[in-house]
From TrEMBL:
Residues 1-26 form the signal peptide. Pfam families: BON. Residues 32-104 form the BON domain. PROSITE patterns: BON. This is BON domain-containing protein. It comes from Methylophilus methylotrophus.
Amino acid sequence: MNKMNRYLVSSVLSGMLLLSGPQAMAKGEPMYDFLPSDTVIDNVKNNLQSHGVDVSNLQVDADAQGVVQLRGEVASKQEVESITQIAKQSEGVYAVLGALRYETGEVVPAPVPEGLDPMMDAPAAGNEATQQQIDAQ
C-alpha cells in the first residue's frame, strides 16, 4: 500500500507541474527585459567615463538585445581589455563585440605563405620540373 501511495502522489504532482508550466509560459512575458538601445549606449558611456575612460574617440553602438559594439582607437591592449570589461558590467549589456584598435609601435613584416615566391609575390607554378623550365627562360 505504501508503494501505491507514493506512486499516486508522484503522479498527481507530476500532472500539476505539467499543467502549470504552459500557463506560466503562455503569459507572453519575456524571459529577459531588454533596455532600449539608446539607454544601453548611455549606460556604457557613463560607466566608462566614471572609470576615467575618454569616450570622445570611441563609438558605442547597441542593438535591441543588448549587444554592444565598441569601435575606435585606444592606447594599448590593456586598455582594450579594460574598456571591454567595463562595458560588459554596464546595465542592459548582454554581450560586447570589440573593434578597438591600438598601435604596437613595432613594424613586423607579414610572413610569406608557403608556396609563394617572396621575390615575385606569385604562387610557384606546377611541379618542380615545370618551375625549372620557367626559371630557365
